[in-house]
Design brief:
Layout (H helix, E strand, L loop, with lengths): L3 H14 L5 H13 L3 H6 L7 H15 L4 H5 L1 E4 L2 E4 L12 H11 L5 E6 L5 H9 L3 E7 L2 H14 L5 E5 L12 E6 L14 H4 L15 H13 E8 L5 H10 L4 E6 L5 E7 L3
Parallel strand pairs: 3-4, 3-6, 4-5, 6-7
Antiparallel strand pairs: 1-2, 7-9, 8-9
Length: 282
């Protein structure tokens, strides 16, 4: 039986040969997950012999990663704003940049109970469910067109104990939310990558993540042009949108054109204009 450290070294070398961007980290995460160890536990068990029956599930995960499948899919979860969210094939993996949207909204939501929020294109549910978990007054409509996304959102609703405050609805944009239902905020991380840029993305994104969650049309703004007027017509307070690099000014103009005169642009930790927020004048 080989010790864990030897398996870790071999896996790291294999990942490096396949062009994996973070070979050592990925090897630690996958092997640790298979053995029920966190990263510290992996280091504390370098000399542990790996039994033959433990190798097969590790081999399966290593093959998946070598095919450039996202690590989060293989692990079945992704940490976002301090909470684990279930993810898997067919689900856009939550990005750290999206936490900028969370921070910007939490600073503006207040503590009114109830506060009605619609998360359009919910995917894993990480945006809307984080807002609901952080703000007990939030009543959430999580909307997506994908059955896989809706099932994943429901799984995360259950895991976070938010069933009483979240409605998960299938449909396009705001259509499945009855017109009689009040909405204070509409939030979304819509697809914003220009179509011609998709082929240049990392294989984890280009070859695996759902195209419907990525492809924003010729200039990346197709969904914004449909969503913003509909959201502005429904939201009593405002709308908050994640945007791609270089898109904030154009999206801000769409927000103003829709009648939301108070517009703010928020930068992410890398200095990129990442979030556009439009609100009604006080």
């Amino acid at each position: 039986m080989k010790p864990l450290v030897e398996l870790l070294t071999a896996t790291t070398d294999f990942f490096r040969s396949r062009g994996i961007p973070s070979p050592r980290l990925d090897a630690e995460l996958l092997i640790g997950h298979a053995l029920g160890l966190n990263r510290v536990g992996v280091y504390l068990n370098f000399d542990r012999p790996i039994r033959d029956e433990e190798l097969e599930p590790i081999r399966v995960m290593v093959r998946r990663r070598a095919n450039r499948e996202p690590v989060a899919w293989i692990l079945g979860k992704k940490e976002f704003y301090g909470r684990d969210f279930a993810v898997g094939p067919g689900i856009l993996v939550p990005r750290p940049d999206t936490e900028t949207l969370i921070e910007a909204l939490l600073a503006r939501l207040g503590d009114a109970d109830p506060t009605f929020v619609a998360d359009i294109g919910s995917g894993s549910g990480c945006i809307g469910l984080t807002l609901a978990a952080e703000k007990p007054g939030v009543r959430l409509f999580a909307v997506d067109v994908s059955e896989i996304a809706l099932a994943t959102t429901k799984q995360n609703v259950e895991a976070l104990g938010l069933k009483e405050r979240v409605a998960v609805l299938r449909g396009s944009l705001l259509e499945p939310i009855p017109a009689s239902r009040p909405l204070d905020w509409v939030v979304s991380n819509p697809p914003y990558i220009p179509t011609l840029d998709l082929d240049g993305l990392q294989p984890e994104v280009r070859d695996h993540e759902p195209r419907i969650a990525l492809d924003g049309g010729a200039d990346g703004l197709d969904v914004y042009r449909r969503l913003i007027p509909a959201a502005a017509a429904r939201a009593r307070v405002g709308i908050a949108l994640e945007v791609g690099a270089g898109q904030a000014r154009a999206v801000a103009e769409l927000v103003r054109d829709a009648g939301l005169g108070e517009v703010a642009i928020v930068r992410d930790l890398g200095g990129i204009e990442r979030v556009v927020i439009g609100t009604r004048p006080a």
